[in-house]
Amino acid sequence: MATFKDFRNQVKPNWCPGCGDFSVQAAIQRAAANIGLEPDDLAVVSGIGCSGRISGYINSYGFHGIHGRSLPIAQGVKMANRDLTVIASGGDGDGFAIGMGHTIHAIRRNIDVTYIVMDNQIYGLTKGQTSPRSDFGFKTKSTPEGSVESSISIMETALTAGATFVAQSFSSDLKELTSLIEQGIQHKGFSLINVFSPCVTYNKVNTYDWFKENLVSLADIESYDSSNRMIAMQTLMENNGLVKGLIYQDKNKKSYQDLAHGYSETALSKADLSIDDEQFNELISEFM
Amino acid sequence: MVDQLSWKVGGQQGEGIDSTGEVFSLAQNRLGYYLYTYRHFSSRIKGGHTNNKIRVSTKEIGAVSDDLDILVAFDQETIDVNYHELHEEGLIIADAKFNPTAPEDCKAKLYAVPFTEIANELGTSLMKNMVAIGATSAILGQSTEDYREIVQEVYGRKGEKVVEKNMEALRQGAEYFNEQAGGPIERLQLEKADGKKRMFIIGNDAISLGFLVGGVRFMSAYPITPASEIMEYMIKHLPKYGGTVIQTEDEIAAATMAIGANYAGVRTITASAGPGLSLMMEAIGLSGITETPLVIVDTQRGGPSTGLPTKQEQSDLMAMIYGTHGEIPKVVIAPSTAEEAFYDAVEALNIAEEYQCPVIVLSDLQLSLGKQTVQPLDYSKTEIRRGKLQGDELPELEAKEYFKRYEVTEDGISPRVLPGTKNGIYHVTGVEHDQTGKPSEVAANRQDQMDKRNRKLQNLKFKNPIFKNDKHDEADVLVVGFNSTRGAIEEMMPRLEDDGIKVNHAHVRLVHPFPAKEMQEMVDSAKKVIVVENNSTGQLANIMKMNIGNLDKINNVLKYNGNPFLPSEIYTKCKELL
């Protein structure tokens, strides 16, 4: 059986020392091992940005695509081979700016893919511009007088889009993050895990200390019920979205693949592609 | 008696014009006639003039006819817009309901037939279409019973009573016309057809059928005119083969989802038109640099932007050949008939996997939506080839080493492994990468990988990259085209020959990589070259000039008003240039 070390490769990440993304990488590796995956069972699809490099840092099949498109690629992989465990990943700019359309539709489509967003509230790789998760008033290179746009409430947005698994975590809490990724992978349907992953170079406001001070753990809220969407929404709003833990899970809704009419139960990538003469004749008879 | 004629039905969109055309043409198809149809329509659902022009012949045809024999009009606008196409012995049959009048300079004879009134008497005005078809059958001297099989098919599920009512509508339409005109019109009597069963199909369905036969099991696409029929065909048929279609949120998702699915091993396609292809350009580059097979159909329509969304044009050629930033190997195939479209669709899938690159199947609106008779398709002529796709048994890798998915090989094509395979782990990235797929900016590696990718298509095998009709060793003129103009060019050629002009025809089927050597030979054996294109800048002519020179010899006949070429237009323009 594979251990988390088997999910390590020899590539040294090009992230800045202290970047939150290191922990996310470690959490994915641990979660994969904990639930008994082998490296070749896993495909990690990523977008563009600092965090997008993650698919190259995990010893598994990996696909580093184009900016904002990790989700459609990941959904395509899963539709083609439902036996694979598919993780999509990227940053908040990748997922909630250029890729927001895909994020919303991946949520409502509910294909069995786990989407892990490394949310640092800034554009890092392009050297510090505002992101859709930047706080109102946040000063960056592109907003020198402070951002005048609202930050997108992504967890609430996910809930309203029909999400069946919504979680949020913090890269300092490796144990909880690993557990949430395990739950996300095991969830039958689309799972969204937003991870506060501080950028130590360009975001001097939302730092490790800031999150430690401001994040509310759902485990600490008595009687919190992650199967209740109303409570989930209320709790998020009461805490300005700054909560961590499993926010919401609907265990009853079937995944896209279980609902798709006629869709093969065995992986399509293993399908026999030939058709017989009788089938061909039937196909052409439609036009005669 | 004539061996071919043209029939057109027109009215307001949403009035059942398409279904009138459908019933009429299917009936002729069953009688064994060859058909070629053209749909004139607008980007709206209800209202606006629409018409269906249907050419019926005892011989093979591949173009819209120059003139018109019979015009069926459900409103005055249909007469006003179309009467100029009618020749002297042509006929208009129009619904008496709107008191139709023929314009003063109309050469054809007008008959007012109470389509709506007869239909109402039978119970519903919906049947006015059948009354009109009945009147048509009388003109042609066909029995209304010839239409029973089709009426049964179309209305059978609504019950025997509805079938009989529709048959009665046909009979009454025929009787009314016969009483008025005193029987069939001699000039419009069609010679008997051979009664053989033949396929009658739009290009989009032929492409779809090719894809299904070629092993496509997944499609991701976004609706757009004139490509949606491909998605609709797949939605109807793929579930029977375990496959499925996802209607994505946009064309970017359609193309990137198709890349993901192809990477994971399923033959996956997407289809769109110009606006969608513009959105897919970045994904096409990703397919190119990651060497992931990808087949995309571009059904060209009037551009740029929203342009003429329901009209014929061939103006995406340059964009399809060169589109995406940077340089990648890409194949662009342009079938010219529905029959070719079927075989080319299968071949596009094979080429995409063998050469691990994007393949564009280029169509145009007239080929995609015009319904035409095709010769029997031969399943045994198709095959599935998957190139250097590796099986499940791979040798063990050194600990922590990646599989050399992008190994530099002599032919530029590297072994391909599907995710999930033991001992096959490698990385894929749109960043320049080394042989295992890890990002690399090393200058020597960059050059090696670029050269490797560029090498792949040097030995591309494609059967008959040019359709040739070249009976003259030395021709006065070589006429060149691509996509749906083939039939119109073929049809006007005998007219030039009758004028003593020796004419050869080259129809380019593989537009990229351009078959320069073969085209050069044909150009060399002609005094003049005329390239016929539905665009305003002569894109194919420019591609030819780039690839083979001969700048002075190459002329253009261009049409970009939204309508397909008529044979007579090409003939006249050629005469002017010769």
Explain what you see.
- The complex is a heterodimer of chains A (about 290) and B (about 575).
- Chain A is of the alpha/beta class and about 290 residues long.
- Chain A has an 8-stranded mixed beta sheet, with helices on both faces.
- In chain A, α6 links the parallel β5 and β6.
- Chain B has about 575 residues and is an alpha/beta fold.
- Classes of the chains: A alpha/beta (about 290), B alpha/beta (about 575).
- Chains A and B meet through β2, α2, α4 and α10 of A and β7, α7, α9, α10 and β15 of B.
Radius of gyration of chain B over all CA atoms, rounded = 26 Å
Please work out how many helical segments of chain A DSSP would assign: 10
Q: Give the total of beta strands of chain A.
A: 8
What general form of chain B does the structure show? globular
> How much beta of chain A, percentage-wise?
5-15%
Multimeric status of the protein? heterodimer
Search tags:
heterodimer; A: 288 residues; alpha/beta; 8-stranded mixed beta sheet; 10 helices; 15% strand; B: 578 residues; 6-stranded mixed beta sheet
